Amino acid sequence: MNLYISNPLCLLHDNGNDHPETAERITRIQDQLISAQMFDWFHHKESRAANNDEIALAHHPRLIEHIENSLPKEGVVEISEDVNLCPDSMSAARYAVGAVLDGIDAVHNDNYKRVFCSVRPPGHHAEYDEAQGFCLFNNVAIGAAYAIEKLGYERVAIIDFDVHHGNGTESFVRKQPKAWFASSFEHPLYPFTDPKSDINNMVKIPLEKYSNGEVFRQAWSEQGLPGLVAFKPELILISAGFDAHALDPLANLQLHENDFAWITSEIGKIADKYCHGKIVSVLEGGYDLGAVSVSAREHIRTLFELD
Questions:
Q1: Domain boundaries in the chain?
Q2: pLDDT digit string, tens, across residues 95-106
Q3: For residue 50, what are the CA distances in angstroms to 98, 117, 146, 158?
Q4: Distance in angstroms (rounded) separating the CA atoms of residues 135 and 232
Q5: Which residues pair with 116 in a beta bridge?
Q6: pLDDT attached to residue 307
Q7: Average pLDDT for the chain
Q8: What's the topology of domain 2-303?
Q9: 114-117 and 279-283 as β-strands: parallel, antiparallel, unpaired?
Q10: What are phi and psi of 289, to 5 degrees?
Q11: DSSP result, 141-154
Q12: What is the C-alpha to C-alpha distance for residues 307 and 300, in angstroms, rounded to an integer?
């Protein structure tokens, strides 16, 4: 069985006018699933809110306090470059983190095989003590920490195919040897991370501007996927960003929705072999509403093995 987790309170986070990261990203994905007659093919759940102790598994308590204290009474405020808050932002972020924790519990207890968390704000740029790049808290890093520290996992893999490198997730795995991280990303592009893989539990896959699906698939086949096999994961988390799509306005890679279906299928085969199929996928970027909705549809179709 498969599970789709979201929460309407995630829609309340507001980045202000003309900002690419909007609530419509989630509603368009759901509309696409409904129009494709897929939405009734899996179970649905509204996420719980993560508490401060859970968020602090991967963040300094001062960051939580800083965001709480920075919430405006009305309107939108910018607390740092590319990080905005509205009165409901903290609530949205708590439910985004809670979705990932609920998803991990669901696969850990063998209630579900695969989970997709359709949540916002995204997370993979958030550092231990700093919100960055549209991200308040690092949803997947908190999830990995939860699986390791609370549920006893020894090998948690994080796969990130967002067009921007997950610098916050990288910082997390540098301190957590039980986690393994593979990330493909356009280079150079925000957050302008060093493209070299310099630790054993991380594989970076930098892709040149305008790289297409063939280059993407070859890079993952030669670098990321063999590393995932060698790691023999007990649980796989996916940072599912769809902004590497050719139509996305914030980057230059030339992927299409079938490329996201391909990488999802390859991850699924490895999950079936090593961790009883356990995958929790979490929405990250994707800012062309048409592209993100069809890409997420094909990712979910493949993740949930609906064909």
A1: 2-303
A2: 999 999 999 999
A3: 5, 14, 11, 20
A4: 29
A5: 4, 281
A6: 81
A7: 98
A8: Arginase; Chain A (3.40.800)
A9: parallel
A10: -65, -35
A11: HHHHHHHHHTT--S
A12: 11
